[in-house]
Amino acid sequence: MALLRARPAGDVSVSEIAREAGVYPNQITHHFGSKDALFVEAAFTLLLQDAERLQSSARRMRTPEAFSEAIARTALVVPSIPLVVRALAVASGNAALHGKIQSAMSILFRQSERFLERTLVERGWVTSHGVERDVRTFWSAVFGAVLMSRAGVPGGPSDIDVAATLTIGTA
């Protein structure tokens, strides 16, 4: 994961990954199936690790608006987001990776939904569109904003109101 965070996936060889992991290259391909599959798994694992940073930034906020702003602002700067965007792009051209993407997104959505549900209950807040829809829309906006920025679209992720995808308010 450290190699993939430091350099573009295309610049990292299976031999390097194996050497860092202390295994043989064929063990990597046997376990993951391909370098692309390893990249997808590593990117989402890093994002799930970064999720604690997102939750921590939002926990301190006392209003629904501040909560939404904090979590959106943090999501746009965690280092794993560009990796996940690249993993999604890699998977879009490789049907063999679709199952891995579906599984990883399902885990991300479930963890995000649990966090948001817990927060809503603890604070007495509500969401007008529902937790599931807010979570899916939020992550779609985050990934889309980063993709557009990395593709050279003028402006940047901060020009997209990701916080507005969370329809959280007081009861």
Keywords:
171 residues, mainly alpha, Tetracycline Repressor, domain 2
Structure notes:
With about 170 residues, the chain is mainly alpha-helical. The chain has a single domain, classed as Tetracycline Repressor, domain 2 (Orthogonal Bundle), CATH 1.10.357. Helix content is about 70%, strand content about 5%. The protein has eight helices and two strands, in the order H-H-H-H-H-H-H-E-H-E. It has a two-stranded antiparallel ribbon with strand order 1-2. Helix 2 crosses helix 3, helix 4 runs antiparallel to helix 5 and helix 7 crosses helix 8. It is elongated. The model has no long low-confidence stretch (mean pLDDT about 90).
Short description:
The protein has 171 residues and is mainly alpha-helical. The protein is built from eight helices and two strands, in the order H-H-H-H-H-H-H-E-H-E. Strands 1-2 form a two-stranded antiparallel sheet.
Beta percentage is: under 5%
Main structural class = mainly alpha
Radius of gyration (CA) equals 17 Å
CATH H level, superfamily name: Tetracycline Repressor, domain 2
Topology overview:
Blueprint: H1 2-6, H2 14-21, H3 25-32, H4 35-59, H5 64-75, H6 80-92, H7 98-123, E1 125-127, H8 131-150, E2 168-170
